[in-house]
Amino acid sequence: MSVVFACLDADTLGGVQRVTHTLAQGLARRGHEVHVIGLQRTGAPFRYVQRPRYHRHLISQFPSDCALARKRYDRRLKALLGEIGSGYAVLTSPSVVARVSRLLPRGFRPIGQYHGSYDHAESCWHLASIRRHYPGLDQAVFLTEYDAWRFSEHALLPNAHALPNPLAEWPDEVSRLESPRVLGVGRLEGVKRFDRLISAFARSGAPEPWELHLVGEGGELDRLRTHAEREGLGGRVVFRGAVPAARMPQEYLDASVVGLTSEHEGLPIVLLESGAHGVPAVAFDVSGGVRSAGPVLVPPGDVDAFAAELGRLVRDEEERRRLGAEARARAESFRLHHVLDGWEALFAHVDR
User: Fold this and answer.
1) pLDDT digits (tens, 9 = 90+) for 253-274
2) Domain span at residue 209?
3) Residue 342 class from Cβ within 10 Å (0-12 exposed, 13-18 middle, 19+ buried)?
4) pTM (2 decimals)?
5) Which of 101, 121, 197, 249 is most buried when burial is the number of CB atoms within 10 A of its CB?
6) Do 329 and 339 share a domain, yes or no?
């Protein structure tokens, strides 16, 4: 049968989209017929795969804000699913599960993904939606065994399963960990809290010529520039903008430490990629997914503790090398072929 991935927005810059396209390409290379469906278009599309072996579909050029437009787009989606015929429908968020699961033809086996942590779901509307819509699916997929257990206990899910995010590529080369550079990667939006990373870098005691490089774009750029100036960092915080996926390996090779200061995370790809390149990371302990990637953990929101660990790694090259080697060994389990094996085993389980 076919494999269909349905996203609210399949082409924006984000972790859900990165994982979706990585899995789609991997499964297509294994001979599956794969479709990625975006329910609406983003304002700034980002291309994750240069030569996709899967089919891509866009239901609407615009967000469906009114009921009449939503009905029209749902008819279009239902017709497309009817043409595909049957398969496994991987619905990548609670909002997509709520909207798409009722439109699936009888030949589809619905699988609900959740890319966040249980802790984040509990703090917002996600948990109520998961409790309402996920029990009726063939399978509910979470990022870690810890999250799957908590959802099964507290959302009463009999169908919870754990599959991690995959690494798109496995690098042969690792960082020398000699460059005086701390790296942050992600959308420049409030939830990523790069202001905390800037403050931690300022308090870490990192001497010149150490710099903080931020890769990503978003609405917080001007505020973060101002914040860096107020922290007295001047030109030592370098805003790199969006970097094409093909150039990201070099960013990790040029880094010696990665910092992650998000308000919440599921299983961040940046921690898997930096680990695969042998780069140690410091992160707030905000989810089971963050813990599974193996960074140096500090209490959520504790900027001073983050600064202390960041400063320790900046000053201690031997410790960077030790932790970088551990990170690469841990990242091995997230290699794409391992994760694809897990998905194919899940499909077989659903069929039984």
Assistant:
1) 999 999 999 999 999 999 999 9
2) 181-334
3) middle
4) 0.91
5) 197
6) no
